[in-house]
């Protein structure tokens, strides 16, 4: 049984320093878990932490998918000699779409999400009923490896509904959780008052100044042991912004100070992985108080790569930061052998990784029209959620009434990008938060918007936003009478492919594909030279989004997605470009 007091943790009566690293099971392929977890242990960590992304497991109300994955991940961690920390949400942030909350739910409850609203809580309870039995069965006091379970996530950065937090904590206890519950928040007074609960362990999150962070925690919770639940040793990236890195020596020095303070720690991240599919979230910056304009859009979608400048890079290879962290942890273990113990006594070993493939460029020789779903007719443009679509594309079409002069056309509430066509001619690419020159159109023309969703905001007051457009005006008059055709992109939609025109002509918004023949498999880094923005699939699996703005210009393709023989690479380019090939690069380019 894990117990604690102000001095630290004890497991079955013996001291234990929790030395944890975050590895999100949904950001790596299951076939890669053994190698990633072995590398975590070889670094000197004795615990692994993972979030649970609700929206992956309940893509539609009452339809549960992939719920066994968490248990399989925890079992693999146990095989690798690691204890585990589970953070089931329901909200996780994590730079993940909508902070892990299902879009169908937040579209319904709106601002009532993350409160004690009965409709929201009913959905949360149903999900936890489905998820938690597998966690409960794997607790340390039942012979498993789960040490702790989190209540919500950084709630002090969002709200003050203590009844909501109490409902979650009581519900976890009622479902059989007997290991310690905990909360995690920033080390600020308003966060630690808003996000904690009496009788529930409080932890703090920070990237530097550990002495200040633990002092803030001690002011509020002198009876709790110091624990940094998220030591931000790197950071994540946004499209069109610089790639983030952190000096490895600086991060290692901070880790050493955390341990010197007598604290337990969870490296966020030990291994970041990849935002496969449409999983990447987004942030939305509030303007400075005295600001009148933005240099960039305040909407900031997260990149497909979640490399995070972590000790283990996106494909699981150790970095300079890994080597320095390993030294810090080895020094700590030598000085505190009674605390820095593992689930078992095996000697850790760093695993070998598969090779990185080198191959000629893959020519895109076939193409297909986009296979939109059945049309829905409505007075105003239906939002994605009203069409049963979490992410993808919607083609909206309407006609401007005849008999009127050229007047300005305004698209309201675009989330997040759209190609605007008038009478079939591409006239503008629109982007959320970016001003466009005024466009005037006459009466009688057909207006088409090919709208694309990017990540839902995962942190702050805009969590729970909807996708699509709010409306389109011709001068001040709204256009009514819309047709909406949805297209889900994950998994790859079925389409009728034929030969690609030799001159590369035709609508850029189409599926194109080529074949990669392999004798042996390995990891790959794929690039789309000449591409502007779009999506890339490998054998029907959506790797994620690409965007020429960077900072990321290659997509990581894990070895398990490739096979000897024929491999199909499929591309959807949404910019005004016609890429004709996909390249395999020897190294990643993250900016």
Automatic annotation (TrEMBL):
Pfam families: BetaGal_ABD_1, BetaGal_gal-bd, Glyco_hydro_35. SUPFAM superfamilies: (Trans)glycosidases (SSF51445), Galactose-binding domain-like (SSF49785). The keyword Hydrolase applies. Signal peptide: none annotated. InterPro entries: B-gal_1-like (IPR026283), BetaGal1-like_ABD1 (IPR048912), BetaGal_gal-bd (IPR048913), Galactose-bd-like_sf (IPR008979), GH (IPR017853), Gly_Hdrlase_35_cat (IPR031330), Glycoside_Hdrlase_35 (IPR001944). Residues 381-487 form the Beta-galactosidase 1-like first all-beta domain. It comes from the Bacteria. Residues 9-330 form the Glycoside hydrolase 35 catalytic domain. Keywords: Glycosidase, Hydrolase. Residues 514-567 form the Beta-galactosidase galactose-binding domain. The keyword Hydrolase applies. PANTHER family: BETA-GALACTOSIDASE RELATED (PTHR23421). Belongs to the glycosyl hydrolase 35 family. This is Beta-galactosidase. It comes from Kitasatospora arboriphila.
């Amino acid at each position: 049984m894990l117990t604690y007091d102000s001095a630290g943790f004890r497991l079955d009566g013996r001291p234990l320093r929790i030395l944890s690293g975050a590895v999100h099971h949904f950001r790596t392929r299951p076939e890669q878990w053994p190698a990633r977890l072995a590398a975590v242990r070889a670094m000197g960590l004795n615990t692994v932490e993972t979030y649970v992304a609700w929206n992956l497991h309940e893509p539609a109300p009452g339809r549960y998918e992939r719920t066994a994955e968490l248990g399989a991940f925890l079992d693999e961690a146990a095989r690798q000699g690691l204890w585990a920390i589970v953070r089931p949400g329901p909200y996780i942030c994590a730079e993940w779409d909508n902070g892990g909350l299902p879009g169908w739910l937040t579209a319904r409850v709106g601002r009532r999400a993350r409160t004690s609203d009965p409709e929201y809580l009913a959905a949360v309870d149903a999900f936890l009923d489905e998820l938690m039995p597998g966690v409960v069965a794997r607790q340390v006091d039942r012979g498993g490896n789960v040490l702790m379970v989190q209540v919500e996530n950084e709630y002090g950065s969002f709200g003050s509904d203590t009844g909501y937090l109490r409902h979650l904590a009581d519900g976890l206890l009622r479902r059989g959780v007997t290991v310690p519950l905990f909360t995690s928040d920033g080390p600020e007074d308003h966060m630690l008052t808003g996000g904690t609960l009496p009788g529930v362990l409080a932890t703090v999150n920070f990237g530097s100044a550990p002495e200040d962070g633990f002092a803030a925690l001690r002011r509020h919770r002198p009876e709790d042991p110091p624990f940094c639940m998220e030591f931000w040793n790197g950071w994540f990236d946004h499209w069109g912004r610089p790639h983030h890195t952190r000096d490895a020596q600086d991060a290692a020095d901070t880790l050493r100070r955390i341990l010197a303070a007598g604290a337990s720690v969870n490296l966020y991240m030990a291994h970041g992985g990849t935002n496969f599919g449409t999983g990447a979230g987004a942030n939305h910056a509030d303007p400075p108080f005295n600001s009148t304009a933005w240099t960039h859009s305040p909407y900031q979608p997260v990149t497909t790569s979640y490399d995070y400048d972590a000790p283990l890079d996106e494909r699981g290879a150790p970095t300079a930061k890994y080597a320095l962290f390993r030294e810090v942890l080895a020094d700590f273990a030598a000085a505190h052998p009674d605390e820095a113990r593992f689930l078992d006594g095996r000697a850790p070993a760093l695993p070998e990784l598969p090779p990185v493939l080198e191959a000629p460029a893959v020519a895109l020789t076939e193409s297909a029209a986009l296979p939109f779903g059945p049309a829905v007719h409505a007075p105003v443009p239906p939002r994605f959620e009203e069409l049963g679509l979490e992410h993808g594309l919607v083609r909206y079409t309407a006609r401007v009434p005849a008999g009127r002069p050229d007047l300005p056309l305004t698209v309201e509430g675009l989330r997040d990008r759209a190609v605007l066509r008038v009478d079939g001619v591409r006239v503008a690419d629109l982007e959320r938060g970016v001003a466009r020159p005024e466009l005037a159109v006459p009466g009688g023309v057909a207006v088409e918007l090919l709208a694309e969703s990017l990540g839902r905001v995962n942190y702050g007051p805009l969590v729970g936003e909807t996708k699509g457009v709010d409306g389109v005006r011709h001068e001040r008059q709204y256009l009514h009478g819309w047709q909406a055709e949805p297209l889900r992109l994950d998994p790859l939609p079925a389409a009728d492919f034929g030969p690609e025109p030799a001159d590369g002509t035709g609508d850029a918004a189409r599926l194109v594909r080529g074949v990669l023949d392999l004798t042996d498999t390995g990891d790959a880094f794929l690039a789309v030279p000449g591409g502007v923005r779009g999506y890339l699939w490998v054998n029907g699996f959506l790797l994620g989004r690409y965007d020429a703005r960077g900072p990321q210009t290659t997509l990581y393709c894990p070895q398990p997605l490739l096979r000897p023989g024929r491999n199909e690479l499929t591309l959807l380019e949404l910019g005004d470009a016609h890429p004709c090939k996909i390249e395999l690069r020897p190294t990643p380019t993250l900016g």
